[in-house]
Amino acid sequence: MNSKWTILEQKMREVGIQTLIITDPKHVYYLTGFLSNPHERFLGAVFSMGKQPFLLVPELDEENARASADIAEVVTHSDTDNPYEVLKKNLKSSVGTIGFEKDHMSVARFEQLQDSLSFARYLDVGPWLRQLRNRKSPEEIEKIRHAANLIEQVLQDTLPRAAIGVTENELVAEIEYLIRKVGAEGPAFDSMVLTGKKTALPHGVPGSQAIASGDLLMFDIGLYAGGYASDITRTYAVGHLDEPLQRIYNTVRAANEAAIQAIKPGVSYASIDKAARDVIADAGYGPYFIHRLGHGLGIDVHEFPSVHGENELLLEEGNVFTVEPGIYVPGLGGVRIEDDVAVTASGVEVLTTLPKELTYL
């Protein structure tokens, strides 16, 4: 039996769940190896206590499911079927208490499940899955490392296009073309390229602004490869950079490195955030670091846990997350430097490898 299924069955037994229905496509992939976007159609991995699980998929996905899923039994429904009645027909035991992911369960889907299965009690299994996903296997870390390598290749291939007069949107178009060209499944999020004073916007929107001499140029980009995400930010200088912007850059770089040096099993996420925040505060920029240090990374580009100053959860080997301190001064500009990191038995491995020294384009 798949080791993840064993953990799920143990948890089901502990809390009294008889039937577990996983419907988030990312969780279906995590548990079964079948990666799909069913759109509005029903997709579910179904686990019943003491029984073999089955996968319920749209008929048009049957061939892919049988080829890639770890689950031996694949059940299909057509576009004219009621998938909830197909689900009921294929359950191998009484429903009892049902478990599902509340944050992925719409009211409409809940009502349809209730009408078909008539369960009396339900429990949210989303927190279990977040905890299970928080410790990545070596195979998962290798997939994230590969995704990081690909996005770095994309950025390196884009930089020669980053010339004075080129717009943010033109660079975004180049990046998203190259993401497909290197063999990735697609961007992990909307690619962000900002220049000049717009770099002071942590979530700025690329537009028609052109690169000018003396600008900062920020890239926050990522991609999916093999079902796993990467997420990297690098900030560059175009032509001569004024001393205040150089100082901001060097402070952010020092904060990034201080946080990475603090990473090891047994320390808290809060302490890592503090390591970076102290560097920025000591340099006089404390009010301009206005977001958390980072976030979990895996089959979602933003996943559990949130790396911030109130998170006292302790790091464990296999945790993967981002380290992305930033300083954003309105009317002047901003710098963010982001790496993807994995906690090892003795410390940390930085999965992103591009240089962090201030680079002039």
Write the layout of secondary structure elements.
Elements: H1 3-15, E1 19-22, H2 25-32, E2 44-48, E3 54-58, H3 62-68, E4 73-77, H4 83-90, E5 98-100, H5 107-117, E6 122-124, H6 126-134, H7 138-158, H8 168-181, E7 186-187, E8 192-195, E9 216-221, E10 223-225, E11 228-229, E12 232-237, H9 243-261, H10 269-282, E13 294-296, E14 303-307, E15 320-323, E16 326-329, E17 333-336, E18 339-343, E19 348-350
Structural overview:
- With 361 residues, this protein is α+β, with helices and mostly antiparallel strands.
- Helices cover 34% and strands 21% of the residues.
- It is built from ten helices and 19 strands.
- A six-stranded mixed sheet has the order 4-3-2-1-5-6, sandwiched between helices. A three-stranded antiparallel sheet has the order 7-10-11. Strands 8-9-12 form a three-stranded antiparallel sheet, covered by helices on one side.
- The model has no long low-confidence stretch (mean pLDDT 96).
